[in-house]
Design goal:
Radius of gyration: 20 Å
Oligomer: single chain
CATH topology of the largest domain: Dihydrodipicolinate Reductase, domain 2
Strand content: 15-25%
CATH architecture of the largest domain: 2-Layer Sandwich
Shape: globular
Helix content: 25-40%
Number of domains: 2
Order of helices and strands: EHEHEHEHEHEHEEEEEEEHHE
Distance between the termini: 40 Å
C-alpha cells in the first residue's frame, strides 16, 4: 500500500489525493513504523533527514533519502554507517546519472576513445533567487543557509562528473558569495586532471542549466541537461552531434523511441526503478546510495572550509 505523511494531517490528506496514495499517516514516524510500509522515501527539509532515515534503518526498511543526506558531515557519516551495519538497501536521487547521454559519455570515456582526460569544466545555473526572491526553508541556517547553492545543486554536478569520468575530486579551492547563492570552484582529481565549475541560483535566464565538458587529448564530450537528447563529441577536425537513438549509441536507459523527448522525469523514473530493483535483490549499475550521499557531504564540507579560509582543501576519499 502506498501511504504518505506530511507536516500536518491536513497536508498529508491533500498530498495523498494529489499523488494517488491509498492512505495517509498522521506523522512521518507513524508511517515509518507501520507494518504495511516496506520502503521509506524521505523527502523532507534537510534537518529532518537524520532522524527519519535513522528510524527507517532501525526498522530494517530500505530507505531512499533526498540529498543532502544530512545537514552535518558527522551525521551523514553516521547514517551511512548505520545503514551498512543494518544491511538495508539505500538510495539517494542523483538522477542526472540516468540520462542516456550521460551513460553514453561514461561508456566512451571508460573505453578511452577520446584519449586521457586533461580538463573537466562546466556549470550548474538557475535563476529562482534572482532579484532577492526568497529561498524558503533552504535559506534557513539549519537547512542550507550560507552555502545552500552548492549543497543543493553543486553536489549534483560533482556527482555526475565523478560518475562519468571515473575520477574523484581530491583537492579544491572554492569561493562562495551572494549569501550562499553562488559558488565558484577549481579542483584537481586523483589522476591529476584539473577542472572548474560555476554554481549559481541567481543566474538570470537559466532555469536548470547543468552542463559539463570532459576534455581528452583526442576528443571532448559535452552534455547539456536542458538539451538532453544530444551529446556533442568534438575533435580538432570536427564536432559530431549524436542524438539519442542514433546508430552506434548504446540503448542503455533509453525508455522511449528516438524522436520522443526523454528528460528529467524519465531519469527520475529510471532511478526509482533501479532503486526498487536493488530492493528486490538486483545490483543495478550506477545506482547512487548513501555512500554517494556521504561523498556529497564530504565535498560540501570541503567547499565550506575552503570558502571560509580562502585556501586549497583536501577532500577525503
Amino acid at each position: 500500500m502506498q501511504r504518505v505523511a506530511s507536516s500536518t494531517p491536513q497536508s498529508a490528506t491533500a498530498a495523498a489525493s494529489r499523488l494517488g496514495a491509498q492512505a495517509y499517516a498522521d506523522s512521518a514516524e507513524a508511517l515509518i513504523d507501520a507494518d504495511d510500509v516496506d520502503v521509506v522515501h524521505v523527502c523532507t527539509p534537510n534537518s529532518l533527514h537524520l532522524a527519519l532515515a535513522s528510524r527507517a534503518i532501525e526498522a530494517g526498511k530500505p530507505v531512499i533519502c533526498e540529498k543532502p543526506l544530512a545537514v552535518r558531515l558527522l551525521d551523514a557519516r553516521l547514517l551511512t554507517t548505520r545503514a551498512a551495519k543494518a544491511g538495508v538497501v539505500t538510495a539517494v536521487p542523483f538522477v542526472y546519472r540516468f540520462y542516456p547521454g550521460v551513460r553514453e559519455i561514461r561508456s566512451r570515456v571508460a573505453a578511452g576513445e577520446g584519449g586521457p582526460l586533461h580538463m573537466m569544466r562546466g556549470a550548474y545555473l538557475q535563476d529562482w533567487q534572482v532579484a532577492g526572491a526568497p529561498a524558503g526553508w533552504r535559506g534557513e541556517h539549519g537547512e542550507g543557509g550560507e552555502f545552500r547553492a552548492f549543497a543543493d545543486i553543486g553536489v549534483h554536478w560533482c556527482d555526475v562528473v565523478e560518475f562519468v569520468s571515473g575520477q574523484r575530486i581530491t583537492q579544491l579551492s572554492a569561493r562562495t558569495t551572494n549569501s550562499g547563492t553562488q559558488t565558484t570552484m577549481q579542483f584537481t582529481t586523483d589522476r591529476g586532471v584539473s577542472g572548474s565549475v560555476v554554481v549559481s541560483q541567481v543566474a538570470a535566464g537559466h532555469k536548470n542549466g547543468l552542463t559539463f565538458s570532459l576534455d581528452g587529448f583526442d576528443a571532448s564530450y559535452r552534455f547539456d541537461q536542458e538539451n538532453p537528447e544530444i551529446v556533442r563529441i568534438s575533435s580538432a577536425a570536427e564536432t559530431r552531434v549524436l542524438h539519442r537513438g542514433s546508430p552506434g549509441l548504446s540503448p542503455r536507459q533509453s525508455v522511449l523511441p528516438p524522436g520522443h523527448p526523454q528528460g528529467y522525469q524519465d531519469g527520475f523514473n529510471a532511478f526509482v526503478a533501479d532503486a526498487y530493483a536493488a530492493i528486490g535483490g538486483d545490483a543495478p549499475d550506477g545506482l547512487p546510495t548513501f555512500t554517494d550521499g556521504l561523498r556529497a557531504a564530504l565535498l560540501t564540507d570541503a567547499v565550506i572550509t575552503s570558502s571560509k579560509s580562502s585556501t586549497w582543501v583536501q577532500v577525503p576519499s
